[in-house]
Design a protein that fits this description.
The complex is a heterodimer of chains A (116) and B (115). Helices cover 0% and strands 50% of the residues of chain A. Chain A has no helices and twelve strands. Chain B has strands spanning 5-7, 10-13, 19-24, 31-37, 44-50, 53-56, 65-68, 75-79, 88-95, 105-106, 110-114. Classes of the chains: A mainly beta (116), B mainly beta (115).
């Protein structure tokens, strides 16, 4: 079965500092990995995805993620955090059993708090 | 342009009542997904439609849950004889195509509380 783990329930970072939100995955076959962000009372918004190619993936709002096959990790990063980045972040993996469509399994989420 | 919309945004039901949750996907989107998000958890897959065809309903937790998309656009998730464990946010998402490269666009969700 495919799964992702987000080991931190909450991450606190000072505004202007770099941030990292951790995610590790377990898949059989090639991993298709995603990051989504959820703001209060709003739906999930897509940030970025890794399908193949470069290990460093750039996404929306200045976020990027580094795919590391040997460590089975896909950590989300941003060089300089903004207060407006405070939200709930979800890592997700595509279920390989889904055939041709994008059925994904989400992690439990990490709350990011950027402190002014 | 308009995104994915869901109605109602909030629903309170007494245990045993039936509820119907509506999803209006982005116009022209082929794929439609329903997810259930319990408090403090990530979304969990319920079911998937490609146009009007329900291709995967493996995530529906019981036969009390039923989803339809009769004309390949609007979808309704129906829960019969609601139970307290059904309390959650129900998310709908749509995408232009079926493959893994297509982004899913999520609606704001319907928060269902069963009392």
């Amino acid at each position: 079965a495919q799964s992702v783990a987000q080991p931190e329930d909450q991450v606190n970072v000072a505004e202007g500092n770099p941030l990292t939100v951790k995610c590790t995955y377990s898949v059989s076959g090639n991993p298709y990995l995603f990051w989504y962000v959820q703001y209060p009372n709003r739906g999930l918004q897509f940030l970025l995805k890794y399908i193949t190619g470069d290990n460093l993936v750039k996404g929306s709002y200045g976020f990027e993620a580094e795919f590391n096959k040997s460590q089975t990790s896909f950590h989300l990063k941003k060089p300089s955090a903004l207060v407006s980045d405070s939200a709930l972040y979800f890592c997700a993996v595509r279920d390989i059993r889904s055939g041709g469509y994008q059925k994904v399994t989400f992690g439990t989420g990490t709350k990011l708090q950027v402190i002014p | 342009g308009a995104g994915v919309s869901q109605s109602p945004r909030y629903k309170v039901a007494k245990r045993g009542q039936d509820v119907a949750l509506r999803c209006d996907p982005i116009s022209g989107h082929v794929s439609l997904f329903w997810y259930q998000q319990a408090l403090g958890q990530g979304p969990e897959f319920l079911t998937y439609f490609q146009n009007e065809a329900q291709l995967d309903k493996s995530g529906l937790p019981s036969d009390r849950f039923f989803a339809e998309r009769p004309e390949g656009s609007v979808s309704t998730l129906k829960i019969q004889r609601t139970q307290q464990e059904d309390s959650a946010v129900y998310l709908c998402a749509s995408s232009t195509g079926a493959g893994v490269s297509y982004e899913q666009y999520f609606g704001p969700g319907t928060r269902l509380t069963v009392t």
